[in-house]
Design brief:
The protein is an alpha/beta fold and 414 residues long. Helix content is 32%, strand content 26%. Helix 1 runs parallel beside helix 8, helix 3 crosses helix 5 and helix 9 packs across helix 13. The structure holds cytidine-5'-triphosphate.
């Protein structure tokens, strides 16, 4: 089931290190190629010989162990599909969160651009330390998958949270990522509200926080996809980020990414209008009581993308040589992209959403109610209805934006 998959297991210096011997066997039994790297402290708990025999590969510990034309941490990163750090100690978690590369394991993580699962294990007081919790939050927000420890009797004699989660949980999480259909695709996702300048100090925008688009990009990345996030908000992630400001800039950027994309998700709140004559200088107050700004319509990016997809599907060049086609309805077509729109409504959610779906011509429309304070704009939660081309609707009840993103990706990959 996992043959051809390359798994890198990073072991840190904690007593749970001995359990990882069994984890290696679980992956090996399913045909995966497993490589192991250890922090020097991990070898106080397990031996290099045990790990080498179980993985049937050399075990990496020191960064400059094997002379190679490629630095070792880079070749490990390049040759691996997924990295699992278990047990992850408080020390290594904090180093990864700060980008410190003082051993082979931390250097590999720093250079690693594919999914990483972190399974912490430590004393319960260390687990509760706010510095450790903050670092875990940082890592989670950067797309690392954290498998929280379980509560119970700890090796140090304490009772509490800190025990490594079950090996089955680590195995299942990794296997789900490695075998998912939603893998190796190219996602282009937009996020945030566009900013339309009035003059050098003022602008028109909206309350979009960008959280839903970022959650979608994080989830797509975590599943092993190539992700480009086009965003108006500042965000640091291990995948490609393109910062834009206005609707026009967003349109140009999305258009230039269109060709390579398998999925385009327009989660951004694009301003429908921009100022017709943007002033180069700060607009001065006058004696008049009113000021009129003339606005012009912005292009509808989503609609334009859907039209482009349709045109390309109908063009004679859509019939391609055999090595370049993707089969759809029995035809050889060039363009099999899935285009997803969002629909922000403050009233008559479903009626307006259905109408918008027709107008835009996208493959899926995700409708959300922005009048509610407990979901939507700025909130960490959302509740949406996914409208599909066949008219079918799927409601996703209120959940964190991460969970909603996971479900949306599942539906659009069906
Ligand atoms: N959208 C877009 N370009 C625009 C406006 C919206 O690409 N100029 C996209 C959004 O990213 C979203 C979808 O269209 O995916 C719907 O956006 P929404 O603001 O709900 O609808 P509008 O088309 O702007 O219509 P209205 O404001 O009248 O509801």
């Amino acid at each position: 089931m996992l043959s051809g998959k390359n798994i890198l297991i990073g072991i840190c210096g904690g007593i749970a290190a001995y359990k990882i011997c069994e984890l290696i066997r679980m992956f090996k039994r399913k045909g995966a190629n497993v490589r192991v790297v250890c922090t020097p402290n991990a070898l106080n708990f397990v031996t290099k010989l045990t790990l080498r025999n179980l993985s049937q590969n050399e075990v990496g510990v020191e960064e400059f162990d094997i002379p190679d034309f490629k630095p070792e941490h880079i070749s490990y990163a390049d040759e691996t599909d997924i990295m699992i750090i278990a047990p992850a100690t408080a020390n290594t978690i904090s180093k990864i969160a700060s980008g410190i590369c003082d051993n082979l394991l931390t250097s590999i993580v720093c250079a690693f651009k594919k999914p990483v699962i972190i399974a912490p294990a430590m004393n319960c007081n260390m687990w509760e330390n706010p510095a450790i919790q903050e670092n875990l939050k940082k890592l989670s927000s950067r797309g690392y998958k954290i498998l929280a420890p379980e509560s119970g009797y700890l090796a140090c004699g304490y009772e509490g949270k800190g025990r490594l989660c079950s090996l089955e949980k680590i195995y299942d999480e990794a296997a789900a990522i490695l075998t998912s259909k939603n893998r190796g695709k190219k996602y282009v996702i937009t996020a945030g509200g566009t900013i339309e300048d009035i003059d050098p100090v003022r602008y028109i925008s909206n309350y979009s926080s960008g959280k839903m688009g970022i959650a979608l990009a994080d989830e797509a990345y975590r599943c092993g996809n190539n992700v480009t996030l086009i965003t108006t908000v500042d965000v640091a992630r291990p995948y490609k980020i393109i910062k834009v400001k206005s609707a026009i800039e967003m349109q140009q950027t999305v258009n230039s990414e269109f060709e390579a994309a398998d999925f385009i998700i327009m989660a951004a709140a694009v301003a429908d209008y921009r100022v017709k004559n943007k002033s180069g200088q700060k607009i001065k107050k006058t004696n008049d009581d009113t000021l009129t700004l003339e606005l012009v319509k912005n292009p509808d990016i989503l609609k334009g993308l859907c039209e482009r997809k349709r045109e390309e599907l109908l063009s004679p060049e859509a019939i391609l040589p055999e090595n370049k086609f993707s089969a759809k309805e029995g035809k050889q077509v060039q363009n099999d992209k899935i285009i997803v729109g969002f629909c922000a409504e403050s009233e008559n959610l479903l009626a307006n959403a259905k109408e918008k779906f027709q107008k835009k011509g996208c493959d899926y429309l995700i409708a959300n109610d922005i009048s509610r304070k407990d979901i939507g704009f700025s909130s960490d939660y959302n509740e949406v209805t996914i409208i599909k081309k066949n008219g079918e609707m799927t409601k996703l009840e209120r959940a964190s934006k991460t969970e909603i993103a996971r479900e949306i990706l599942k539906v659009i990959n069906e």
